[in-house]
Design brief:
The structure is a homodimer of 325-residue chains. Chain A is an alpha/beta fold. Chain A is built from 13 helices and seven strands.
Amino acid sequence: MRALFALLLCVASAVSAQTLPSWNDGAAKRGIVEFVAAVTTKGGKDYVPPAQRIAVFDNDGTLWAEQPMYFQLLFAVDRVKAMAPQHPEWKEKEPYASLLRGDLKSATAGGEHALLELVAASHAGITTDEFEKLVRDWFASARHPRFKQPYRRMTYAPMVELLRYLRANGFKTYIVSGGGVEFMRVFAAQAYGIPPEQVIGTSGKQKFELRDGRPVLVKLPAVDFVDDKEGKPVNIQRTIGRRPLAAFGNSDGDLQMLQWTCAGAGARLCLFVHHDDAAREWAYDRQSSIGRFDKGLDEAQAKGWIVVSMKSDWKKIFSFEGAKP
Amino acid sequence: MRALFALLLCVASAVSAQTLPSWNDGAAKRGIVEFVAAVTTKGGKDYVPPAQRIAVFDNDGTLWAEQPMYFQLLFAVDRVKAMAPQHPEWKEKEPYASLLRGDLKSATAGGEHALLELVAASHAGITTDEFEKLVRDWFASARHPRFKQPYRRMTYAPMVELLRYLRANGFKTYIVSGGGVEFMRVFAAQAYGIPPEQVIGTSGKQKFELRDGRPVLVKLPAVDFVDDKEGKPVNIQRTIGRRPLAAFGNSDGDLQMLQWTCAGAGARLCLFVHHDDAAREWAYDRQSSIGRFDKGLDEAQAKGWIVVSMKSDWKKIFSFEGAKP
C-alpha cells in the first residue's frame, strides 16, 4: 500500500513536469492545474461539460507583448506613412503631423481618442480582403524595435502552452481584446491556434457594397465597438452568449471581464499576468499608460485571484530566448 | 465488373434514401448532396478543410415558421401585456395602445421602426439572466395560434435534418437571423443543435453594472445592430471572420448574405426556401410584408441558386404532422 502511494506520487510529479513545462512549480501553476482538474473530473461537484468550457484571453500584454506600444499602433504608423502622399493635409493635422515627423509621443498624447482616430483613418477606405493582405504583408516584414523579431514571435511561450493545455482539456479558447478584431485574426490561428471565429475585439463599422455586381465589405473610418473595460463582458455576451469559466488578462482593461467570469457559480479561474521582469521583458503596472494594472491588482489581491509573476513563475518568456535573432 | 457496378449503384441509392429522408429526390436534394460531396472529397478540386466549412442559416421562415407573424413579436406582445400595469402611459401611446386593445394590425402598421420599438421596450430594463428566464418560461407555456403547438415544435423537419447532415460532414452551422440573438439562443441548442456561440442576430445595447458588488448585464431599450439585409454579411464578418461556404434563407432579407457567400471562390451553395404550400404551411412570396421574397427569387433564378419548393421538395414540413397535437 505504501509502495503504491509512492508510485502515485511519482506519477503525479511526472505529470506535473510535463504539464505547462515553461511554468515553474508554484502557486500560479498549481492554481491552474487544480482548477482544470475540478471542472473536468466527472462526478466531481464542479464538473462542467466540455461544451460549456469557455476560456477568454486578453491579447496585448497577456498573450504577447505590448511595449513600447501596442503592435497594432506600430502597424497604423507604418500605414499612415505609406498613405501620407495621398493625404497632403496630414502635414498640418494632428495626430498625423507629429507622427510623420517621427514624434510618436506627441502623436499619441491625445489618449485613447487620438489612438482610435489614427487606427480608424489608417485602417479604412479599403475592403476587408485588401486589409487582410496589408496586415499579412506587414507581419512578414516588420520587426520589433527592441528584440528585432517578427511580431508573431513576440508571444509568451508559457501562455501559448496554457492555451494548448486548456484545449487539450476540452476548453474552447477565445481572444477578447481591445485590439482590432480583423488585425488579430490574421495571426491568431498561426500564433495561438485560435480560429477567426474565436477572436473578439474592437471593431470598425463596415459597409456592404456591390462593385460591378461583386459584393465587397468596405471598412469605414468609424468605430463600431470598443472591446475594452465594461465593453468586454458586453461583447462576450453578444458574441459567445455564455459566461466564461476562466479569464486571463494583464491590466485594468480586463478587470470587468474577470469580474463577470468569476461571479459565475461553481469553480472559476481568474488570472492576471504581472509584468515584473524588466530584464527579460518589461516591468510596469500601477503608473503605466500602456497596460495600467492598478485597480485590477488590488481586486486580485482582495479576491485571491492568481497574479502571475513573469519573473518568478515563468522559466522563459519568449520562445526565442537564448536563440540567435 | 458489371456486377460490381450494379452493386455500387445500389449502395449509392441506399445512401441517397438515408440522406435527408424528409426530402423528395429531385434537383434541390441532388444539388445539396453534390455540393457536400464536392467540398468534402479529399483530393478533389473543390475540397475544403473542415475548419473552413461554415454554413449560415436564416431562422424565421428558413428553420422555423414566421406566420402569422415573427414568433419573437408574439413574445413581445405577451411581455407588453404583462408589463402594462407598470406603464399606464401605454394606454395613450402607439404602438402599445393598439396592441393592448388586441389590434395587432395597427400596432405593427408602423413597419420595422415600430417593431423595433416594441421589441426594445419589451425586452429592456432587465438583466440578461432575467431575460433568459422570461423567454424560457414563455416557450414552456405559449402555443402557436394555428397549429396549437409549442413554438419549439414549429421548426421544419427537413431543415433540421439538413443541419445534422452538414454537421456530420464537418460543417460548423450558424444561425444568422434578423431575430434577437438572446431570444434565439434560448431554444437554438435544443431545437437545432446549435450552441449559443453559433447564433448571430439582431442585438440590443447592454450595460455592465455592479449591483452590491455583483456584476450584471442590463438590457437597454436601444438597438445595437440590425442583423438583416446588408447587415448580415457585415455581422458575419465581424463575428465569424470567414466567408461562409453555404447560405440558406427564405426572403429578400437574406439576399446579401447569399450574394456574399456565393461570390467566394470554389464550390458554394446558396439556397432559398420558397413558401408555396398553403395547405401544410403558408404560401407567400413577392407581396408579403413578412418574409417578402421578390428580388431574391429573381436573383436565384438568374444565378441558378437552389429554390426549394416546400410543397414538392419536402415529404413533410413539421415533425408533428399526422400526430395528434
